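INSTRUCTION: Work out how this chain folds

Token vocabulary: learned, describes local backbone geometry

RECORD BEGINS BELOW THIS LINE
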Amino acid sequence: MVNYGASQFICPRNQPVYGLELNDGTSDFRREAILASSAIATIGSDLPLDRSVCLANSLGSSDPFKWFGRFVLLRFVVGIGLLVAGGLSVSQSKHQENSTPTVIGGFACTVGGITILISNSIFQRRFARRMIGLRYDDLVGLSTGFAPLCVEVEDASSFDKLKLVSEDVGYLGLDNRNQRVIIEGVRCRYSIHAADVVEIEQIEGASLSATKLSYWIGDVTLSIAVKSGSIWHEVKRQLGVSKDPLIDRLRKTLEF
């Protein structure tokens, strides 16, 4: 039995939730679910096999997830900047006698911009893998459906809003034996049992689709949007494949 001890992840009701207080004083959308989880997963116990929980990870005062978000934003700005520079270079080359150097420079900028934007998903997977550490190896042992997949987790109620950085990123595993979906995230750990599931549906956001998972944690309902960080998923979407790749796998595991 893999020990998913909760001692460092449970937030007592009289203490702040680790890393989930926003700068304006409002609470993260998972706060009530995390507090409800403290009544289900007792300190030092294994992650319950027949109940759903959402446990907050202690990220410390430096909060590496914030630095991750800033770096993603920087990469996005640089990538867009290079694409714009490439376009301007090609446009200017039309008015030059010797346009070859300008065209080559523009082509290099365009390729560089595309590479930076596409490689954001690779950077995300490496960051998540490094942050969850040994929990990834434990997830491999529990996941009977397929190898853990890097995913992004967002608030389902605000998924239609454009976001450069999701609320969480981590690895998803399917525990078919116990009818559980487990997401080992950087900020939170999500364990979703079939008996607690309220809704599984595909939702459309500003630019991507995701699978909405709504489930009970005690007397609290948590709704998250789970989307794949796969480049291949986005390629298929651009080719006209509209169905989210996760939804059938999640429904099968949770028998929903």
Observations:
- The two ends are 26 Å apart (CA to CA).
- Helices lie at 31-37, 64-93, 100-118, 120-132, 134-142, 231-238, 247-254.
- The chain is about 35% helix and 20% strand.
- Residues 212 and 225 are 4 Å apart (CA to CA).
